Predict the 3D structure of the following.
Amino acid sequence: MAIADDTHIFIGGGNSETSEATDQAYVLDAEYSMWIPAKMPTAKRSLTCSGITSADGLETEVIVAGGHDGTLFLNTTEIYSLAEGDWRTGKTT
């Protein structure tokens, strides 16, 4: 989970009801009290670390790093653009 700004909270990954890693992601729009499905990331992940980045007034992005895909621990990152609603691959750690 990552708090993006005053009205948006991002959640992604985690485990399904059957304890499998999931590739689902959602953004809470607190202004309308609605969870909005986000585009799915490329990797299923549980046990992740998430954070927010923005610089010099540029768009806010969510960085999702590491985690477990149900078989292996991951050393990859994915970055979600709140403005564009899309993912891009980050650096491998």
